[in-house]
Amino acid sequence: MSAAIEALTVGRVGVDLYPEQSGVPLSQVTTFAKSLGGTATNVAVGAARLGRRTAVLTKVGPDDFGSYVRDALAGFGVDASYVATSPDLLTPVVFCALNPPEDPPLLFYRLPTAPDLTLTAADVPWDLVAEVALLWVTGTGVSVEPARQTQLDMLAHRGRPESSAGRWTVLDLDWRAMFWPSPQDARREYERLLENVTVAVGNRAEVEVAVGTADPEEAARRLLDRGVEIALVKKGADGVLVATARGMTTVAAQRIEVVCGLGAGDAFGGALIHGLLSGWEPVRCAEYANAAGAIVASRLACADAMPTIDELEAMVSSRTMREEVR
After folding, report:
1. Which of 80, 151, 286, 303 could form a disulfide with 36 if both were Cys (CB 3.0 to 4.6 A apart)?
2. pLDDT at residue number 324
């Protein structure tokens, strides 16, 4: 399948457990629903739901949850060939509290470390890394060794062309404080990542860690100064800033009733992959990515909630019609 893969995502995987009773603390929840999770994994699923041929480079434990991850990926149409096994670690489990729904707290079980952070050179399909049309990496992936050096070596092996010409390397800043000793440590590693990527994606908090400012326009300028072709800064209800060397545009947010904000950013990523591989202009990519995020935020679960292309078309079209009526 590797010859047909259009996008390879690298990084976090796990099993998400969602309470089936809402509005109560985890201590009072009696039943949970299981779903595939993890940023890189959800992004691959989101792009696959839109018709893209995707694969995930990650690791699981030698347990039944690891088997579940592989089976779930196959069910979503994602190539699981590069899901390796870390023999001495367990597949991560994440509990979601669902309150507040816009930004529900997560309880990670990834100790002493997660299998996906033990990626080494032996796990990497080097030819695919060099040749795939789109490579997706995350900030979490360089939070500890050996995954840190492995991901940096992958980016160096792939290189950054003077012009992407349909060949993209995307960095999801993916800042999660619990995975890092300090923001300063994270910024140092983000600087190294930015040397070899063509697209950077993050929210206000993530760009502040990466480039030292939460101001979207200034953060975008700093990202462009580091050589990326497209910088996307998510501004929540204020939309997403799309910046290139030609200028900056804010794409308005979609208005929905939030059920669970988890997975919205990953859906954004899956639709962004689809748009980049389709050759769309950055603003159009962001419009569809915004729509994907809104759809998933209006549902419960991440991977299972990823939208189809028809659902995206309907949401983008409905907003365009509303704007024309105004």
Report:
1. 303
2. 37
Query: Does any domain span residue 17?
Result: no
Residue with tokens 């204020």: 238
| Rounded Cα–Cα distance for residues 91 and 96 (Å) | 17
Q: Which residues contact 106 (CB under 8 A, 6 or more apart)?
A: 94, 95, 96, 97, 262
Full-model pTM = 0.93
Chain-centroid distance of CA 135 in Å reads 12
How far apart CA 262 and CA 70 sit, in angstroms, is 21
Q: Is the peptide bond before 146 cis (omega within 30 degrees of 0)?
A: yes
Domain membership of residue 170 as a residue range: 2-12+39-92+112-325
Q: For residue 236, which phi and psi values (nearest 5 degrees)? A: 65, -130
List, for residues 40-55, the tens digit of each pLDDT value: 999 999 999 999 999 9
Q: Residue 303 sits in a domain of what CATH number? A: 3.40.1190.20
- Considering its fold, how many domains does the chain have in total? 1
CA 178, 211, 149, 242 dihedral sign is: positive
Task: Give the pLDDT mean for 115-138.
Answer: 97
Sheet holding 54-60, edge to edge: 83-85, 54-60, 7-10, 134-138, 168-172, 199-203, 230-234, 240-244, 247-251
Q: Which two tokens stand for residue 185?
A: 């440590």
